[in-house]
Amino acid sequence: MKFTLTIPVLLISAHSAAAWGTLGHETVAFIAQNFVCDDTKIFFSSILNDSSTEYLAKVATWADSYRYTAAGSFSAPFHFIDAEDNPPASCGVKYARDCGAKGCVVGAIQNYTSQLLDSSLDKATINMAAKFVGDIHQPLHDEGLAVGGNTIPVNFSGVVTNLHHIWDTNMPEKLVGGYSLDDARRWANILTTEIRRGAFAHQAASWLKGIDITDPVSTSLHWARETNAFVCTTVLPDGQDAVANQELSGDYYEAAVPVIQLQIARAGYRLARWLDLIAVGVRTEL
Ligand SMILES: *[C@@H]1O[C@H](CO)[C@@H](O)[C@H](O)[C@H]1NC(C)=O
Ligand SMILES: *[C@@H]1O[C@H](CO)[C@@H](O)[C@H](O)[C@H]1NC(C)=O
Ligand SMILES: *[C@@H]1O[C@H](CO)[C@@H](O)[C@H](O)[C@H]1NC(C)=O
């Protein structure tokens, strides 16, 4: 009994810092799968030795527990950039100020992109690169206040948790109604339709503006700044005291949903283009 109680607690706490949770990461990967070029799909399926319809989604969360091991702990800071801004009065990300000495998500995207372009095309590197593109689109991964909201206690559907965790996990899972691979596929297909011919059709092209595989820092800093702006408008519009110890599964959740949908869609669409550019870049060098 003790054993079965311990395992879920460990999983939940590992989950809490893993960004977007499993559901979010797998959804981003499925959206990317829907948009990559045919050549990119062949390229990555072959490297991953996986010709299934889940070749990227399965790798998206493969190394989730890696950062909690002694060997992987160095990668923990790579999932976020702690903007030292002042929400809700002012938001903003500055690379020199906010990327700590131990690294950050912007530097990590640069690192892992150049590793992929140098033909270090292994499962672990693909996993990391895909994950960091997802993470940078979660507003509280681009915020230093209260450790990205981790120290702001909140209630969600009667459960005591923290603000960071509800953005990673509780709110996406409430929206979708589950967290299985099939839930992720279903959500990804809904967002893919919105991108192709729905609510996002007119803006999707603008999401790729400025994307430059030779300049991953500028590219991902743009993504971080755009995402961090939601901390002022949607995550903490009235400051942290307004949400601390409050039940957030009502109006707060309703206001967050459009941002979550947009950010997951953007992350997947951008990841597709990023993988296309990596695949083309590697092939050109070979
Ligand atoms: C690739 O996958 C197949 C089927 O799962 C497996 O039999 C094979 O050993 C794998 N090859 C490599 C190089 O991992
Ligand atoms: C880049 O990768 C190296 C080696 O893994 C690591 O030491 C460094 O901190 C990383 N830099 C950033 C900014 O993430
Ligand atoms: C938050 O949850 C705790 C523990 O269940 C409860 O005592 C408290 O009243 C809840 N607060 C709100 C605002 O719902």
From TrEMBL:
What is the organism lineage in this UniProt record? Eukaryota, Fungi, Dikarya, Ascomycota, Pezizomycotina
A biological process (GO) annotation for this entry?
DNA catabolic process
Stored Gene3D superfamilies: P1 Nuclease
UniProt cross-references to Pfam families, sorted A to Z: S1-P1_nuclease
Query: What keyword terms does UniProt attach to this protein?
Result: Disulfide bond, Endonuclease, Glycoprotein, Hydrolase, Metal-binding, Nuclease, Signal
| Species in which this protein is naturally found | Hyaloscypha hepaticicola
How far does the signal peptide extend, from start to end residue? 1-19
Q: One MF term from GO for this chain?
A: metal ion binding
Q: Which InterPro entries match?
A: PLipase_C/P1_nuclease_dom_sf (IPR008947), S1/P1nuclease (IPR003154)
Q: Is Secreted one of the keywords UniProt gives this record?
A: no
Q: Family, per the entry? A: Belongs to the nuclease type I family.
Source species, domain of life:
Eukaryota
SUPFAM superfamilies xref list: Phospholipase C/P1 nuclease
Protein name in the entry: S1/P1 nuclease
